[in-house]
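Dear support,

I submitted the protein below through the web form. The confirmation email said the job was done, but the results page showed an empty box. After a refresh the structure appeared. I'm attaching both so you can tell me whether what I see now is the final result or a partial one.
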Amino acid sequence: MKNITQSTSVHKPSHLIVFGGTSGLGLALALHHQALGWQVSVVGHSVEKIAHINSQHPDIVTHCCDLTDRAQTQTLLESWSDINFQRLIYSAGSYSNERIHQLNQADSDKMLAINLQAFEQVFRWASEHLKHQSRLQNQSLNFKNNDRPSLICIASIAGIMDYPYASLYAKSKRAMIATASAYRAALAPYHIQVNCIASGYIDTQALRDLNDGDASHKPFVISTQTAVENVMQAIDGDIELSIFPRSMRYITRALNHLPKPVISWILRSKLDKKT
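What the results page shows now:
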């Protein structure tokens, strides 16, 4: 009888790392990849959420890290000096409704740290790590479609529009989109794929919590499963900037042709929840 272990150990499962992978879209993408046979590692800051994943999904490797702490984040990244991975998704994010609540120092620091500074820190490390892997592994090898080295970031449709009323959240997501585009160009010679996701409202627990338990008033809100399907289509199709749902993509294109003061008025009157 053949040694089955020996015959199946030739190809290791592809490895995915998800920052912000303990809840919402990040966790949904982690579970989707696990169902496809990927080895999955997730990073989050909530001890309770990590404990829940350890209990319900013991095959997922969890890491607790506060992304607002640059030194703590760097320690985690340096501990992965010998790790091999094929895909990294940055799904961590922080949001405060600046149109309703006055932005305070704590919220400002947190949003800037997670939405931009930690993102840049992680993407810089990940790109260098994947380039190093490329040098060690002959890049002339033909990767399977789902095995091609790739960096994915979850931005927001809020970052698509440029207008004076834009919040810190929207500006940081706009910067994320631009940064991902630069990495895509820089990593193309290494055959490393970079995709950015700019989604509309996703019906996650976090969104419901921000809206008193009900996010139904949000325009064109979609389910987490629908969001996962759209993200995977963007990755498989190597779409540089994926904007969904389709209705929101068309609306943002139209809005961007309007004078900026008009965009500001529309967003103030249509998107804010009445208090």
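Response: this is the final, complete result; the empty box was a page-load delay. DSSP finds ten helices and seven strands in the chain.
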